[in-house]
């Protein structure tokens, strides 16, 4: 289980940074592919969907990084830069809101016109200044999470930027994640509870067919709710019995 979780994280996070970096560098997105979507036989591979149709962590990441509007954070020459990448056909006035690990602070940029079918820089500041404005934050004790939004109601998926390697993180404790479930008909609602922030939370229900609306995520609040879409009949008892939860802190 631990080795499997590590491989899932490496596969998903190995494709995410190049995908985001390529978009920012070309200043426009005209389509991209990643290797590979699925498998034609059972084997450990770079595919994002298993032979039987089960989603791997990479596929959950792909849903987010192929969203029509995403925020991308990078560090360059000591500066933290956040870009808005839009595949929408309409221009929107947006800003970026970001939080630090715990969180220590919450900041918001000015509203900026984000061009449709293009890349717009919405924030730039020295990393040292960002950390200074967030109280006791250091590179190892804080992670930056951010999201785009605006008065028109358009938002992007939550994204993040590590300022150091997660393995060197300070204050990252075992999250002791627990859960409750509720059958809502076509979906099963899963309420997650943790005692501390958790990185790359992975939910698995063995051979129960279906998918979660989000997986491999950062759990930055004490309570987090996800939904599992069922592809076939199952019971709450079966779902609860087969539910496994793993996070990055569980593998070392």
Automatic annotation (TrEMBL):
Residue ranges annotated for the Beta-mannosidase Ig-fold domain, each copy included: 172-251
SUPFAM superfamilies: (Trans)glycosidases, beta-Galactosidase/glucuronidase domain
Domain of life: Eukaryota
Keyword Hydrolase: yes
Keywords: Glycosidase, Hydrolase
A matching Pfam family: Ig_mannosidase
Coiled coil location: none
Mannosidase Ig/CBM-like domain residues: 80-168
GO process annotations (BP): glycoprotein catabolic process
A single MF term (Gene Ontology): beta-mannosidase activity
Recorded family membership: Belongs to the glycosyl hydrolase 2 family.
Protein name per its UniProtKB record: Beta-mannosidase
Native organism: Bagarius yarrelli (Goonch)
């Amino acid at each position: 289980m631990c080795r499997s979780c590590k491989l899932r994280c490496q596969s998903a996070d190995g494709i995410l940074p190049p995908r985001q970096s390529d978009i920012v560098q070309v200043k426009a997105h005209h389509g991209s592919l990643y290797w590979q979507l699925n498998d034609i036989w059972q084997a450990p591979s770079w595919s994002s969907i298993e032979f039987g149709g089960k989603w791997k962590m990479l596929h959950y990441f792909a849903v987010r990084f192929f969203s029509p509007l995403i925020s991308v954070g990078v560090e360059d020459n000591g500066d933290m830069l956040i870009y808005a990448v839009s595949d929408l056909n309409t221009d929107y006035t947006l800003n970026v809101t970001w939080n630090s690990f715990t969180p220590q602070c919450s900041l918001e940029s000015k509203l900026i016109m984000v061009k449709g079918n293009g890349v717009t820089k919405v924030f730039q500041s020295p990393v040292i200044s960002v950390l200074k404005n967030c109280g006791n934050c250091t590179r190892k004790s804080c992670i930056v999470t951010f999201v785009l939004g605006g008065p028109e109601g358009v938002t992007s998926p939550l994204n993040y930027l590590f300022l150091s390697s997660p393995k060197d993180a300070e204050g990252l404790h075992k999250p002791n994640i627990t859960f409750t479930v509720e059958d809502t008909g076509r979906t099963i609602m899963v309420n997650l509870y943790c005692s501390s922030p958790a990185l790359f939370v992975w939910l698995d229900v063995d051979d129960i067919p279906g998918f979660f609306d989000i997986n491999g995520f950062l759990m930055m609040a004490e309570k987090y709710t996800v939904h599992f879409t069922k592809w076939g009949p199952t019971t709450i008892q079966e779902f609860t019995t087969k539910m496994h939860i793993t996070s990055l802190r569980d593998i070392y």
